[in-house]
Amino acid sequence: MKTKMPEILSFISEEAVSRKMTSEEIAVHFGYDKHHFSRKFKEINGFSVAEFLSSLKVEKAIFELDEEKRILDLQERSGFESSGSFTNTLKKYTGSSPRAYKRK
User: Which residues does UniProt assign to the signal peptide (predicted)?
Assistant: First the structure.
């Protein structure tokens, strides 16, 4: 799996976020068992699949936050299922709520 990791990371960055794939769906896509995939992914990268997906979503949201007029539209486009999830994840990575971050 280690030799496939660049391909896996690229796939997650380019496809999985926009398609709202779960870690299980990503594992199946590459022919791995969900638990084995999750364990090896974290062992190799130092972070979980879920953490990587969240960081990619936050990066996308931050990039668009200054231009977006409605935070709700941005939350949906960035792949977050709820406004609470979006707010909590953005706070975790930036220390600010979406509204406070946008004001900066």
Answer: none
